[in-house]
Amino acid sequence: MKITGRIIIADSLMRELNIPFHKYIMVRSGSLKVYTELVVSNKLSGNYELSSDLAQRLNIHSRKKLLIRYDHLFDMLHLGPTIGILTTALRNESEYEPTSLQAELIFLSKIANTLPGQIYIFTPSSINWSNLTTRGYYYRQTTADRGIWLSAIFPLPDVVYDRVSTRKGELRTQIRDAKHQLMSMENIKYFNPSFLNKWKVHQIMMTNPELHQYLPETRELTQDNFEHMLIKYPVLYLKPGNGSLGMGIIRVSSESNGGLKYVVHRRKRIRGQAESAKQLMSKTKAYRSDRPYIVQQGIALATFRGRPFDLRIIFQKNGQGKWQISKKFVRLAPPGSSVANLSSGGSVETSRKVMNALFKNKEIIEKKNQEIYNFCLTLANTLELSSGQIFGELGLDIGIDKHGELWLIEVNSKPRKTTETGFSKIIMKNTFKRPLEYSTYLAGF
Questions:
Q1: What is the distance between the alpha carbons of residues 152 and 93, in angstroms, rounded to a whole number?
Q2: Domain range holding 294?
Q3: Of the candidate ranges 84-98, 163-177, 354-368, the one whose mean pLDDT is the lowest
Q4: CA 87, CA 121: separation in Å to the nearest integer?
Q5: Could you tell me the pTM of the whole model?
Q6: Do 346 and 395 lie in a common domain?
Q7: Residue 335: how many CB atoms within 10 A of its CB?
Q8: 27, 61, 80 — which closes off a domain?
């Protein structure tokens, strides 16, 4: 047994954490474990101190003292939390764009400086599997509007917060292999591990009868399924199973003469007509690019000032591991469109203003807001239970129809969060902070 340095612990902390005295004890930082000498002191000004060689061996660089807990199961001291934010690459673009991934990572790193523990950003290429360390990056402000990325060697973390930002990046072999290996390690908790597929999510939601009333009828897109749905519904949506930002959605409406009109939502809207389901499938094939699609019942959404809208909800776990609504706002479809997506020219409004206009009665609004929360909670719990994966945040798009009923439009496991807001900056900041607080909870602190 190799012994490195020593840890000095105040006798009051020994009693508080119920740590049995040993001459030597194992100390863990992230995935690194080291045996060290245990010294108990009644003169220590703080809770504990590490010798410099022990701190170096554990790759502890934090200017803040890490939290400490005693793991009774393994008879081990745990210093932390050590939290790694996984991404594909760390950009350092000269122009700061508030809606970019770079802005998100910078903001996360700034918030990390206000929280306990070691929190860093890392990529699969920065990992050294042989010694369970990684090069981690953190942001330091140098002037009022500028900063730089610094790096150090850290232990592989207690918790991985997956911020791989694109489906294409997620499919890269290096990313896929690194994620699989990290998730298989005994001391690492990993949350929001992958993007979601619309068809698989629908199948999961259908396993819970409590959710059935909120789910538009949905099938995999085939010509037979398409023809069957056309008989039942005047409006259908064809959606890419792995799409995002509203791109590739095709709205189909039936005409009184038996024909079909369609609108393809891309960078701009492309309109067309077809005489039959077969012809429409043929005409839209190039837009669908042989990707798997679903066909979904169209919902007659309620409108605000003549524009259809949906609710975007950022649903997150907090520092106690409990789900809560961190952010809720309304996305208004652009004029002439039925798809309420900001990337396609939509705009935002406060949910309070729209709910007041829609329901008018305070008691009805409170009841509807409670239903929205219960729906989100049931959905999130169903997703975790059925998938066997851990989620710390979800982006939920919920429609309200002309009768005031709720409908699930989409679930996103990698909701993009912008550092620019016309609403509350405190709410915006908390949407970035909560996943890190949840990470601290997952780490055991």
A1: 21
A2: 217-298
A3: 84-98
A4: 7
A5: 0.92
A6: yes
A7: 10
A8: 80
> Residue 50: is its pLDDT beyond 90?
yes
- Provide the CATH number for the domain around residue 389: 3.30.470.20
Distance CA 195, CA 247 (A): 16
Whether 325 shows a pLDDT value over 90: the answer reads yes
Total residue count of the chain as it appears in this document:
445
Q: What CA–CA distance (Å, rounded) separates 203 from 218?
A: 9
Residue 212 burial (10 A CB sphere; 0-12, 13-18, 19+)? exposed
Distances (CA, A) of 242 to 88, 182, 250, 429: 19, 24, 14, 29
Q: Name the helix (H) or strand (E) containing 56.
A: helix 52-57
Look at residue 188 in the predicted model and tell me its pLDDT.
97
Statement to judge: residues 161 and 225 lie in one domain: no
Residue 156 lies in a domain: yes
pLDDT tens for 121-137 read 999 999 999 999 999 99
The mean pLDDT of 249-277, rounded to a whole number, is: 90
What CATH number does residue 22 fall under?
2.40.40
Which band of pLDDT confidence, cut at 50, 70 and 90, is reported for residue 346? Answer: low
Tell me if 74 sits within 8 A of 88, measured CB to CB.
no
Mean pLDDT of 56-73: 92
The CATH number assigned to the domain holding 135 equals 3.40.50
Based on the domain organization, do 345 and 271 belong to the same domain?
Answer: no
| Residues 92, 151 within the same domain | yes
Return phi, psi of residue 56, to 5°. Answer: -65, -40
Q: Which residues in 407-418 are b (16+ Cβ under 10 Å) and which e?
A: bbbbbbbbbbbe
Total domain count, the chain? 4
For residues 24 and 41, membership in a common domain is answered with yes
Which of 80, 96, 127 marks a domain boundary? 80
408 and 305 in one domain?
A: yes
Structure tokens at 233: 């519904």
| Res. 333 pLDDT band, cuts 50 70 90 | confident
pLDDT at 337 over 70: no
**28 & 44 share domain:** yes
Q: How far apart are CA 383 and CA 393, in angstroms?
A: 12
Q: What is the DSSP string of 363-425?
A: HHHHHHHHHHHHHHHHHHHHHHHHH--B-SEEEEEEEEBTTS-EEEEEEESS----S--SS-H
Instruction: Quote the pLDDT of residue 181.
Output: 97
